[in-house]
Write a structure and sequence with these properties.
The complex is a heterodimer of chains A (about 190) and B (about 240). Chain A has about 190 residues and is mostly helical. Helix content of chain A is about 70%, strand content about 0%. The chains are: A mainly alpha (about 190), B alpha/beta (about 240). Chains A and B meet through helix 2 and helix 4 of A and helix 1 of B.
């Protein structure tokens, strides 16, 4: 049986914590430096989201190949096998959620990167709004995937740690977008 | 005026450059993640074609006693080495309890099961085709499998075989294997089927070894199910 804690999970958690600390230190600080900090935290959340989605996609592929994966535990309450390996729930229109995660966080990453490279560009208010809408759109998916983990997969409830990392990344992007929107409204951008 | 135009053209150039760099950074990160993910575990071909892993599914199933949650891959032997005769092959059949050809095939399936049950696990997926008089239910599936009374022998839409027969008159004996209910036809869709009956033989590790449509469809070699069982599994 595989341990739930692993180096990869530790790195992802460190990424989430790092992004949260950057956000916490900057969200009240006015001016360009504070804005840059909030954008950086959003970028870090999105990066963790992309990489963790790729990791879950690999777990999915290895489960399809051999029925088991050395990349995550497959027994107990906290595990991936029953969640990522579930043929009924780990797909949206036939695509595994890992692929959808890479694509979604990729779009978010692009929007954040444009803000990061030139936060005073004329399009910034519009891009902050895009980010805000993307964040809002992501939250129902997070809620739905938590319901799937806890209630619907075979042998539920289960908690998939890498999926949780992705959910936290999405929430982190949403919170960053919220503070960016607030900074624009309060003229503290 | 010329200076102002120059300034605005510089700004728009900067805007375009920013978008280009952001796009390149995003493409770089996403490509790296995709390549690393595929290097760790490549995509597995899943589908009904021979040589692919059969589509996995979780659905309600009936074993003659009760309904329970059945997962197709739970009966696969992932460690099958290609030779071991201890592992069982799998015959997956798709029917509609109201389809006349499926009704007739009931007898053949009884015979195949009697002959190969020790080396082949039989699974029947009951779909709900969207055709008049093809309304089905869990009770009808139970009656079809068990060959018990359900409906009448009048052509009144009540019972099996387009509602023409009581299910207890189905050709063949009671089927002693798992019947899966596919009310939304999602398993049927995963197998890319257009009608019933259909059957396929899977290796013990879940890889499709024989697909009826490939052999009995247009351009096929005409090999039928018992011949395929004989060729792949051998004598019972």
């Amino acid at each position: 049986m595989m341990s739930v804690l692993s180096l990869e999970l530790g790195i992802f958690i460190a990424g989430i914590l790092g992004a949260s600390v950057i956000l916490q230190r900057n969200y009240l600080e006015s001016g360009e430096e504070g804005t840059k900090g909030v954008i950086t935290s959003g970028l870090l959340f999105a990066t963790v989201g992309i990489v963790a989605s790729g990791w879950t996609w690999s777990i999915h592929n290895s489960l399809m190949e051999s029925g088991s994966s050395s990349m995550c535990a497959s027994e107990g309450l906290v595990q991936c096998g029953s969640v990522i390996g579930d043929p009924q729930w780990n797909n949206l229109f036939g695509m595994p959620w890992g692929v959808i995660g890479i694509a979604s966080f990729g779009v978010i990453f692009f929007v954040l990167m444009t803000l990061f490279l030139d936060q005073n560009a004329k399009r910034s208010p519009q891009f902050v709004n895009y980010l805000w809408y993307l964040g809002i759109a992501g939250i129902p998916f997070v809620a739905w995937l938590v319901v799937i983990e806890l209630l619907l997969v075979e042998g539920a409830p289960h908690i998939c740690p890498y999926c949780t990392v992705i959910h936290l990344s999405m929430i982190g992007v949403f919170v960053s977008a919220h503070f960016m929107k607030k900074r624009r409204a309060n003229s503290t951008w | 005026m010329a200076r102002r135009r120059g300034k605005s053209s510089d700004l728009s150039k900067n805007n375009e450059e920013t978008l280009l760099w952001a796009g390149l950074a995003t493409a770089g990160v996403v490509s790296l993640v995709v390549i690393a993910s595929l290097a760790l575990a490549p995509i597995v071909s899943i589908g009904p074609e021979e040589g692919n892993r059969a589509p996995d599914f979780v659905a309600d199933a009936y074993n003659g006693g009760s309904w329970y949650e059945f997962r197709m891959s739970d009966i696969w032997d992932w460690d099958w080495d290609g030779n071991s005769s201890d592992s069982k092959w799998i015959l997956i059949q798709f029917i509609d309890t109201d389809c006349p050809y499926c009704w007739e095939e009931g007898d053949e399936m009884s015979q195949y099961h009697a002959q190969w049950k020790d080396r082949v696990t039989f699974v029947t997926v009951s779909v709900h085709l969207n055709i008049p008089n093809h309304e089905s239910s869990k009770s009808e599936i139970e009656a079809f499998r068990d060959r018990t009374s359900f409906g009448t022998n009048e052509n009144d839409g009540d019972g099996c075989n387009s509602g023409r027969d009581n299910c207890n008159t189905r050709p063949g004996t009671s089927h002693q294997w798992t019947y899966v209910d596919d009310p939304s036809n999602s398993i049927f869709a995963q197998w890319e089927l257009g009608g019933t009956p259909f059957s396929a033989i899977l290796q013990p590790d879940g890889v499709v070894a024989w697909n009826k449509l490939k052999h009995q469809g247009q351009g096929g070699d005409g090999e039928d199910l018992p011949s395929a069982l004989q060729r792949l599994v051998g004598d019972s």
